[in-house]
Design brief:
The structure is a homodimer. By secondary structure, chain A is of the alpha/beta class. Chain A is about 40% helix and about 25% strand. Chain A has a 6-stranded mixed β-sheet, sandwiched between helices. Chain A has a 5-stranded mixed β-sheet with strand order 14-13-15-16-17, with helices on both faces. A 4-stranded antiparallel β-sheet of chain A has the order 10-11-9-12. In chain A, a hairpin with a 2-residue loop joins β10 (about 210-220) and β11 (about 220-230). In chain A, α3 (about 50-60) crosses α4 (about 80-85).
Chain lengths: ~425, ~425
């Protein structure tokens, strides 16, 4: 099988001065991986023409596809288009169809046409480029060819980039390359630190056939193992997956490229069940994660974030005696919170979180990172405790992730 | 002033196959910017030794500081340490103090000592490196010198990297470099698309003194303008800031590097006021953003996410007649939701969100992206409507951001 290589280059100061996280590249890398490309490198560079040109030299010399994002905005600090044109020895020309697109876009957005100089400048393209129209923004997409490498320049605004990549650029890639998707499976493993999991899998990993490649993808609360076959033998992967299940059993709690909120959502939807959440230490994150899945309103009825004891009593019906006896971060309160959410929203299931996210609030017996998660399943109630780290945001993320994985586990057991 | 340049290199397949977003680099870039460095490039590369070595060649040739993250985990797919040692022509040696740290770390984490081979391997370091101890993990930090460039290798786990960078590496940077923080101000501007803002500021921007550099930092709901002086003349910046306020007035809604949740939190804390949230289309994100600030429990009492009409009535006391007459996405419902949250949690202020996040649920009169945000201020109630994009996650983020900025605006007006 032909394996094509790719580079992703992000242009602009926003990333270099740390103002934004480069989420575009991860999205593109994931897309390219699944389309069958091997991404060799991701670079974020300034929009200095010499920097762009030198980076292009490198990327064109080593990869079959170069994707550029950013630097196409209407403001003066965006110089990518001119640098690209110079690199390919072209002339900038006004593209009338692009200008029509821009006009139509502005009319749609504002209700009337008000074209400013900055907008007109966006219709300038290189005469060396193949231009793809951008149906949802004002920056056109340009494609160039050099030394057998395809170079595609796209806007940097994430939703715009994603839209034009999916709807315009992918079709072009299929014309240029004979793409074959990677054969792979991804296993979501819970309950192990990375080093212990590696230790447990050492023998199995050493015995893997040459063509198989294993990657550890740790994130707060879960380690995903991605097993990829270089020559696309699905059979090889399946044989090894069977062995992996023999070693890890139910510690493999899900499979697939999707995040856990998709898996949980699918189970709820398929079984026509509803869920609600009662949050303390996650402050809304658990509900946010569940509702980040399109169509979540079919199963998530709602949630209550109760930071204070008063709110836990009044909104979730937690007993003041329970709070007094056990404290807010306790098994008993986690259980009463879960029951309270299920009752408030009249749902089949409910998840609750109560813990000490940090950085303050820890005690000798309940240090920062102590978390109780409660689970309500049509009348049955459970709770589990965890000790996470001392980082507030990591504790919140980990609590939300673990809560969803364990809910899936309880659902399977029940 | 000496201006030092830096590169950030992230090693490992996780980013290249799109499994994780490189948030480390943005965090480091922000930190380096404020410390006075200019970040020239951020690269994510594989852990192939030749790739690491070639990238180091480039980075050392062009920058004064090279920060490496990742590739130090205990699993077999982490090869950075050996590649670095080979690059600097060193020998790997077992460092006993690092081994002691690892043992102590494991005892603290598990309660007893169980050292596996993978852990021992983490105590191997290059004899060409200056080793910094890692107090919160098992991977040591190594520093190298070459051709006047300082190279620092750190673990890739975000909270571990941040901790060692802040507590160990920064002190070393102050020893190696004469650092002077950048002179800059950041203005948060709301209410303009990027192209219109650029148009409005064109004359002012063209007239800026040579030493001033302007960057547009757009994100959902706000554009931040960063004005930096290359030669650290705070005076120059202040003169231009005054002009900027004359042009934009109250559209500049905040200043500073912090996100809006910090600004809102500070106002509430300073005035000893409390707040609650009632969320529909943001599904918990608004509460999560507010509680992401350490110490938020002092002012955020809680929140209710009510997806269904039934929950809006039962949990927030929205009238069924209002829902029937105006629909859930309406000014009247947004107002009643805000009142309901303030009542439920007994707070001074409340914010509500109700809208169509998408991708489904849009109608002719209320397309996807239609959002109403309600504001309750000690008895007064307001609501504002917005039309955002067709991307679910962007709509959620933008709604949460705009809700907080506008709450600040209402607080200032009241």
């Amino acid at each position: 099988m032909a394996q094509y290589s790719a580079s992703i280059i992000t242009i602009g100061d926003e990333i270099l001065i740390g103002q934004i996280v480069d989420s575009n590249s991860a999205w593109l890398a994931d897309y390219l991986f699944h389309a069958g490309f091997e991404v060799k490198e991701i670079r974020s560079i300034s929009d200095q023409p010499e920097h762009i040109q030198q980076t292009l030299d490198d990327a064109i010399a080593t990869t079959d596809l170069v994707l550029l994002t950013g630097g196409l905005g209407p403001t003066n600090d965006d110089r990518t288009k001119f640098a690209l044109n110079a690199y390919f020895n072209g002339e900038m020309v006004l593209n009338e169809s692009v200008l029509d697109d821009i006009k139509a876009f502005i009319v749609k957005k504002r209700g009337y046409l008000k074209l400013i100089e900055n907008n007109k400048a966006q219709a300038l393209v290189s005469d060396k480029a193949t231009v793809l129209r951008n149906p949802i923004g004002t920056a056109p997409i340009q494609m160039f060819n050099k030394s057998g490498t395809l170079i595609v320049s796209m806007p940097g605004v994430p939703f715009e980039m994603k839209h034009v990549f999916e709807h315009k650029v992918m079709a072009e890639l299929h014309k240029h390359f004979v793409l074959e998707a990677h054969a792979y499976r991804t296993f979501h493993v819970v309950g192990y630190p990375e080093s212990e999991l590696a230790n447990k899998l050492e023998q199995w990993e050493n015995d893997l056939p040459e063509s198989l490649e294993l990657a550890y993808l740790p994130s707060p609360g879960v380690i995903r193992l991605r097993l990829k076959d270089q020559v696309n033998h699905t059979h090889n992967i399946n044989v090894q997956a069977k062995k992996l299940y023999e070693i890890l059993g139910s510690q493999i709690i899900a499979e697939g490229k999707e995040k856990v909120e998709f898996t949980l959502g699918k189970i709820l939807k398929d079984n026509n069940k509803t869920i609600s959440v009662a949050e303390s230490c996650t402050g809304g994150l658990l509900g946010h994660r569940i509702t980040s899945v399109a169509g979540a309103s079919a199963y998530l009825k709602g949630g209550i974030t109760a930071y204070s004891n008063e709110a836990k009593e009044k909104q979730l019906g937690v007993n003041s005696a329970t709070l007094e006896k056990h404290g807010a971060v306790s098994e008993a309160v986690a259980k009463e919170m879960a029951i309270g959410a299920a009752k408030a929203f009249n749902t089949n299931y409910a998840i609750s979180t109560t813990g000490i996210a940090g950085p303050d609030g820890g005690t000798e017996t309940k240090p920062v990172g102590t978390v109780w998660i409660g689970f309500y399943l049509e009348g049955e109630v459970y709770a589990q405790s965890f000790l996470f780290t001392h980082d507030r945001m990591v504790n919140m993320e980990r609590t939300a992730t673990v809560a969803m994985y364990n809910m899936i586990d309880w659902l399977r057991k029940s």
